[in-house]
Design brief:
Elements: E1 4-17, E2 20-33, E3 37-41, H1 48-55, E4 64-73, E5 76-77, H2 83-89, E6 94-97, H3 101-104, H4 111-123, H5 127-140, H6 146-149, H7 159-171, E7 177-181, H8 189-206, E8 209-214, H9 217-223, E9 226-231, E10 234-240, H10 241-246, H11 251-258, E11 309-312, E12 315-317, H12 320-325
Amino acid sequence: MREVILKVDNLKTYFNTDDGIVKAVDGVSFELKKGEILGIVGESGSGKSVTNLSLMKLIPSPPGKIMGGTAVLDGEDIFKMNDNEIRKIRGNRISMIFQDPMTSLNPFLRISTQLIETIVLHQDLDKEAARKRAVEMLELVGIPNPAKRVNDYPHQFSGGMRQRVMIAMALSCDPEILIADEPTSALDVTIQAQIIELIQDLCRRMNTAVIMITHDLGVVAGICDTVCVMYAGRVVEKGTNDEIFKEPKHPYTQGLIKSVPRLDKPTSEKLFSIKGQPPNVINLPECCPFHPRCERAMDKCRNTYPPVTTLGEDREVRCWLYEEDK
C-alpha cells in the first residue's frame, strides 16, 4: 500500500469579478500517493490549473482567494503556511512544469542562471556545485552536450528542448511532488510522446508523485495510475485508470471518451461530440451543471447538486443516476 503524501479536502478557490463570483474550484478533494501518477482531466475552464496553482499558493490575490479546504502535505496544511514557509516548499518539495515552455523561461537569462538559482536556493550548495548539478540534470533529461548548452539562452533551444529544460528545473531539487500543467500542449505529437515518456521514466526512477493536468485522454490512458475528471470546478468522477476507461460512470466522462478518435472505427463515421458548451461558473446555481448537455438528465438534476456516491475503494461519482440506484 503506497503512502499518502498529499491529501486535498474540499478545496474552494473563488475569484471576485465585476460580473459576480467565479467559483473556479468549488469543493475538490483527492489523495496523492508516493510514486503515483494522478491525472486531472476535463475541458478548458473546468478548474484543473486553478486547483494546482492553489496547491502552490500562486493564486493572484486580488481577485482570487482560497475560500476553504485543506491541503495536507506530510502532516502540514499548506494553506496555513506563511510566505516564508511556502517558499521553502515551492520548487523543493513541490515543483511545477508550467503550460508553455516558450514563455516560462526568461529570454534574457542563460539556462545556467535559471537552473542554478533554484538549486542554490533550496539545496544549500555553492554556485560551482549547483552548476555541476544543473549539467547533470540537463544530461538526465536528454539534452545533448549539456556542459556547453547550459550556457545557451532559451531562444537557442527548440520547443521540445525548452520543455526538457523546464523538467530539469522542476526535478533539480528531487521534489516529492511534480505538477505537470499541460506539459505537451504546445509540442508536436512526436515530441509529446518523448516528453511524456521522459516524465514517466524520471518519476519512476526518483519515486516522485506526479499530478498530470491535461485535456488529452490519450496521455491519461498511457501513463496515469488514478484519474480525476473535473467539470465546472468539481471532481465528477474518480477512479483507477482501468476503471475510468473500461467502465466510465458519469455521462460527462462517457462523452469525453466517446469524443476520442478511434482507429477501429470506420473513417466515414461522424466523430462524437458533447453537445452544448461548458457552463459559465459565475454565480452557478446549486444544481448539476452538466444537465443542459446530458441526455440522461432528470428533474432532480435541474434542482439539486448530486452528492458523492462511493462505488468501491477510491471509486467515486457525482451523479443522481447512481444515487438513485443505491
